[in-house]
Amino acid sequence: MTSLVLTVVGDDRAGLVAAVADIVDAHGGNWENSELAELAGAFAGVIEVSVTPDRVDELRDALSGIDGLTVAVHAGREADAAAAVDRDIELTVLGNDHPGIVREVTAVLRGHDLSIDRMTTHTSETAMFGGRLFEATVVARVPASVDLSAVAADLERLAAEIQVDVIVAE
Asked: Rounded distance, CA 48 to CA 88, Å?
């Protein structure tokens, strides 16, 4: 089986996920993993599917025909053997919303050669304080060669600088 990663975006409407799932199924594919969301009236997502190599092109062509949905198909990679010795950490970031939080946190991770596997962010109104609250959850892959205590120390320093809470869990 060949692993494909689909990125999808379009105006949100009922039936978009079903349309993609129908096409994947009709071409003998299997829906493996996905992250899908409605954001500001748009439907966006990332979907991992597997399909036999001889059906990749016809699946790609069929997906391009979904009305109102832009689908990009990328070849997936097989799991790296070195990744088996990597560790995962989960970060929770919470604080008053302001520009630059994602940029600053991801810069620390990049500086330690961590790779983000999954990141979810959202903002919400804070009724008691009259502002916006920013919250993020990040799952990052830590190479075995990286000193996790140094990563945590840099994140603690950053949290104090940009006035957010950052919790690191292994």
From this structure: 20
Under 8 Å between Cβ of 148 and 89: yes
The CATH number linked to 126 is 3.30.70.260
Identity of the amino acid at 138: V
Q: For residue range 105-162, list pLDDT tens digits in order.
A: 999 999 999 999 999 999 999 877 778 999 999 999 999 999 999 999 999 999 999 9
Percent of the chain with pLDDT over 70: 95
Amino acid code (one letter) for 161: E
**What stretch of H or E contains 119?**
strand 115-126
Same domain assignment for residues 55 and 100: no
Contact between 93 and 135 under an 8 Å Cβ cutoff? The reply is: yes
Amino acid at residue number 153: A
**Whole-number pLDDT of residue 23:** 97
Phi-psi region of 51 (alpha: psi -120 to 50; beta: other; left: phi over 0): beta
Chain-centre distance for alpha carbon 149: 25
Q: Give the containing element (helix H, strand E) for 33.
A: strand 30-39
Phi then psi for 146, rounded to 5 degrees? -90, 135
Quote the domain boundaries for residue 156: 83-169
Query: By CB neighbour count within 10 A (0-12 exposed, 13-18 middle, 19+ buried), where does 47 fall?
Result: buried
